[in-house]
Structures are given as structure tokens and as C-alpha cells.
Amino acid sequence: MPAPDSSATAETAAETAAESAAETAAAAGGDVAERIATRRSRAGRLARGTVIDLSPLRHADFRRLWIGNSVAFIGFAVTAVAVPVQVYDITGSSFWVGLLGAVGFLPLVVFGLWGGAIADAADRRVLLISSSLVLWGCTLALLLQALAGLRSLALLLVLVAVQSGAFAVASSTRGAVVPRVLPASEVASANTLNFTASTIASAAGPLLAGALVGRGWFAVAYGVDAALFTLALYAALRLPALPPLTEGEAPAQRQVPGLRSVVEGLAFISKSPVLLLSFAVDIAAMFFALPRALFPQAAAEQFGGGVGWLFAAIAIGSSLAGLSSGWIRRVRHQGVALVVAVLVWGAAVAVSGLARNLAAAVVLLAVAGAADLVSAVYRQTILQTYAPDEMRGRLQGVFVVVVAGGPRLGDLRAGATAAAYGLTASWVGGGIACVIVVLPALFVPALRHYTSRT
Asked: CB-based burial of residue 140 (10 Å sphere; 0-12 exposed, 13-18 middle, 19+ buried)?
């Protein structure tokens, strides 16, 4: 038997070692690539879970509503600045400017409650179109009076009153439409999208309005509002028919709802601790801890200016919270989350009242605004998913009254206590009072045990 060739053996061993090293390196490289891919996947999931959830926009009806109302709200915010400035331009009196809120409040309450009752008995598409046309008509009337140079205070007050009533009906109806065009699992995300868009408009609209009315271009401001509102009107026109879901009742048997229907809606809330408490904590948050009426005095006496930043701070915080709100839909204990958000709101407002420089106050108010968006989303979501469809319009009416009326009461509280006890006591004390009043709600079983599956 011949002896093996030593050089060949060495060569073979070298080749084997090289192949083994290559395999090891490939395996190591594969492990590295796999780890990198895993990390990227985790980072992607984290990013998707952080940014705002856009899944409701896959539904065409909601997508059109959201785009139309988001754009229209910018115009509405422009008009909300232009009308008070025009009233002051006509009268030279802050009294008449303040009276605008009182003129609009009563129609807001009456038509918010009654309009919600109608939304439970009528086709919500038809009601939304009708109320939207009235809103659009008011804006066109504002445009025409500005073009004609009428300078009529009485006409402006009447238009504000009619506009407030139509806004209450449209808002109540629109809120009741959302659960009909989306699955229940996406209602929270839809509300987040709506509130985020409205807060961005609340910051952008006044800036645009300031540039226009500062030059006396009231007609241009109203024209912008009228043009932008056409998108909201188009979205309402494209909705499918949305008749009541009440079974066993022919359309001819349904009557125009009156006081009894409104009372039924209020009675439903009084017997539903979850809904009653969700409204109560919101009223407490706005009544005790809204410092908006104190911003002009704070800017003049404490910060040496910056009133625009103070007014925009809460909306900026809400906007940023909305854009990073992908986590909101995954929270199960929505009742607890609602109360905690209100507590954060009150605490942030209290601390912001102690700030001695504008930047710190703006940052803290932005934190409060972020908490306010979270509480608003959960409050609206609990209302829309907990209530039966035949009650949603009436409950949305109550929601509109609370959301619009609470801040007005908060302005009154803040101004009165500041006049009696000083700026800091009103600002800080209001935030602390909010925390003290709302904290016990954490221990109420109805809210503590309420989950998204309830």
C-alpha cells in the first residue's frame, strides 16, 4: 500500500480549515444580519406604536369627513378671531366683545341638546347636511356684510347666535356619525385624529386671522372660511344614508323629538355612572384649571409680553400629543386613563402658574395640553362606544354643551378669583383644586373597572 502524499494531505487540511472558517464566518454574519433585522423590526414596531394611528383613514366615509372638517376648522378658527376683532373695531368696547360669548352660549345649549335628540330620530346624513348649510350661510352672510361695509353690531350678534346653534347641531350629529362609519375598535383612533386636527387648526387659524384682520381684511377672512368649509359640506353630501337603527319602528311613526327626548338623554346619563363621571371630571378640569382668561394679565405683568405663545401653548401640546398617540388605542382601562390625564392636566397647570419665565410656562402649558387631548379622546370614545346608537345623538349634544360651556365657566372662575385674590392664587389654586376634586374619581368602581371591552 503506497504511503500518502504529505503535501496533498496538508493541502486538503488547509482547504477544509478554510471552508470551516468560511462557514463559521457566514454563520456569524448571518447571526449579525438576523440581529440587525430583528432590531429594525422592533424599532419599526415601536415607531408605529408611537406615531398617530392612521388606520381609520382607510374608510372612505371617515376619510372624507376628517379631511373636510380638518380643513374647515381652520376657517372656523379664522372667523372665531375675525368676529370679535370686528366687533371691537365697530364699538371700541371690550364689553360687547365679551357679550359675544353670552350671545352664543344659549343657542349652543338649546340646540346642542335638541339637535342631539333630532340626530337620534332622523337620518344623520340629512341633518348634518342641513346644519352644515346653515353654518355655511352664516359665513356667507358675514362675508357679505363685510363687503358691504355695514358695520352693524346687531347683525353680527344675530349671526353669531344662529351660527352657534347650527354648530351645536352639526357637532352633535357628526359625533354620532363616527361610530356608524367605523368599527368600534377604531373609534379611539378616529377621535384622536379629529382632536389632533382641531388643535392644529386652533394654533394655525388665529395666526392666519391675525395677518388678515390686522390689515382690516375682514371680508378676506370670512371668504377664506367660506371657501374652506365647502370641503366639509362635500364630505357630508358623500355620506350614505344613516337612518335610526331602532327596530320595529316605521319611519312614518317617528316624530320630531321634543323636551321628552332631551330629558330621556339626560336621564340615561344620570343612570350611567361611567358617562356621568366622564362629564363631571371634564367640567372640573375646565372650571377649576383653565387659565386662559389670565393670559393677558400674565403676559403684561409677569412675562413682559408673549401673550400669543400663552394662548397657543395648550394647542401646541395637544397637537404634539396627537401626532405621537399611536399607543392610545391599546390602553384597555380607559376610565382610569381618563382620570389620570385630567390629574396631569391640573398638576401641569398649577406648576405653570409658578413659572417665572415665558419659556417654562409655555412648556408646562403644552404638557397640560397633551394631557387634555388624551382625556378628550377617552371621554369621547367612552361616550360613543358605551352608549347605544339610539342615544348617541342626544349624548353627543350633552358632550358639545359640556365641552363648549365648561371653558366659558372656567374663564369666569379664573377672572373672578384673580380679581379677588391675585393672578398666582387664581392660576395655581385652580390647578390644585382640579386635582383635589378629580382625584376621588380614581376610586369609583364604575371608572376604575371600565375597559375598552366593557
From this structure: middle
